Amino acid sequence: MARNFTRAQRLLMLRKSGYCCANCGVNLTLDNFAADHRIPYSKGGATQAWNGQALCITCNSQKGDKWEGLSNGDR
Ligand SMILES: [Zn+2]
C-alpha cells in the first residue's frame, strides 16, 4: 500500500479536522498542512482517510512515531 495520501484523501482529512491542526489547533490550508497517519505507517497503519489526521508542519515534524494513538476520536 502506498505511504502517501492522495490529494483527495488529504482534502477529506483537512475537512474532517475543521481546517485546524489536530494537535495544536492552528489554522491549516492545503498548502501548509501535513497528512499524518494516526497509526504510523511503519506500524502497519493504513493509508486511508480514517487513519489520517491533519497536522501542521511543526507538529508533524515533532511527532515521528511517538504519538501513536494520541488522537482516536472520530473513526
Ligand atoms: Zn500543530
Commentary on this structure:
This protein is α+β, with helices and mostly antiparallel strands and 75 residues long. The protein has one domain (7-63). It is built from two helices and two strands, in the order H-E-E-H. Strands 1-2 form a two-stranded antiparallel ribbon. The longest helix is centred in the first third of the chain and has 10 residues, at 7-16. It is globular, with a radius of gyration of 11 Å. The two termini are 20 Å apart. The model is unreliable at 71-75 (pLDDT under 50). Bound molecules: zinc ion. Zinc ion binds next to strand 2 and helix 2.
- Which cofactor or ligand species appear? zinc ion
Instruction: Characterize the largest beta sheet: strand count, sense, and whether it forms a barrel.
Output: 2 strands, antiparallel
What fraction of residues sit in β-strands? 5-15%
Number of domains: 1
Indicate the percent of residues in helices.
10-25%
Give the class from helix and strand content and strand pairing. Answer: alpha+beta
Mean pLDDT: 86
Low-confidence stretches: 71-75
Termini Cα gap: 20 Å
Rg, alpha carbons: 11 Å
Overall, the morphology is globular
Total helices: the number is 2
Topology order in helix (H) and strand (E) letters:
HEEH
DSSP, total strands: 2
Order of the strands making up the biggest sheet:
1-2
